[in-house]
Structure formats: C-alpha cells, structure tokens
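Researcher: Watch the backbone:
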Amino acid sequence: MRPLFRLILLLILCPTFSAFGAELGVVGPTYEITEPDLIEVIQARLKRMAATGELARKQREYRDKVIGGIETPKAVPGVKTTEEPRTYHVDPTLTVDRDIRNAEGEMLHTRGVKVNPLDHVSLTRKLLFFDARDSRQVAFAKHRLNDLSGKGKPILVAGEPLKLMRAWKQTVYYDQGGSLVRRLGIRQVPAIVSQDGKTLRIDEVRP
C-alpha cells in the first residue's frame, strides 16, 4: 500500500479518533487503494510502440522534421521579388529598456536613453537579402558578392541555405522569422543594406 493512502487510512481508522464521535460500526468492506504507476504506464506504452514499429516511425518523422526545418526553413512572409526599385534610409536608434553596465559594473546606458549602435560600431560588410528559390536572384547575389570581394554577407529570406552554402563554399545566413526584414522595413528582394553616415541605406533592386 502506498504511504499516502496508508496515512489516510490510519487517520480514518485509528482508535485515537473514536473520542471525537460515536462508534459507527463497519459500513462495508475495505479494499487496498491502488493506482497505476505513471512511469510503468509510459514504459509499457514505449514497449508496445517498439514492438509494433511505431516508435521507430515516430523517430524517423521527428528526425525528418528537424532536418527539413534546417535544410528548408519557412520563408519570410510578406516579401516579394522587386518590381519597383526603391531606396530609403532607416535610423537604427533604439530606446534602452534597462540599465546597461560593462563587465566592471560601470554604467554605460541608463534605462530610457536613446542609443544609435552606429555611434559605437560600423557596418563593415553590406548585407544582401535575397530569395534562393529564384534562380535570377541567386545569380545576382553571387555576382554582387564577387564584386564586393568578401565585403558582403548573404542573407536568405527563403530557400535552402545549407544547399547554397555547400555550392558556394561560404557561410550563408537566414533571416529566421523575418526579424531583420521587419526591423529594416524590407518588402522586396534583392535588397542591399549598407551604412550611410549614422543611418542604414536600403536599396531594393531588380535581380
């Protein structure tokens, strides 16, 4: 019998408590309270799945899903191939949401202050956003990256980054979830991001 149920039964049946009420007699037969062990239930379930081959199938499905998510991430929504080229600027200034201190504990920025990252670091490489599902954009990106001679960083909004990485033998990035695209206001690709003074210049160009 499990300790908890034994304790409950002792509290109910212990003669010490008879002083608090009249003797009611035996109402009916008593039985040991049992419940299935959760771990045993899970282990039994896994054994059945292993015996039927279901466990191996589930493992393959999970593996394929993980690999598929890495090989072909979800495309960034709301981005299309450039139809009308445009150039615009983005001020990267942000409002600090908490106090920022250095490793020595000295205050660098207090909460609420506005900070432009370009006051402290420079964008030394141009960012090239493109859709690798479009062969024209891939060719354009490759040509432009060659012209930049290592001063460019390829960033996909759709397509297979690992496949392109193997073909180009260089690192290819992916804007997972579209956080950069949203921050920069990019609606068309190819798009080239470069530093222009204390702002970022974005050129959406035709492939």
Q: What stands out?
A: The chain is about 35% helix and 20% strand. The chain has a mean pLDDT of 82.
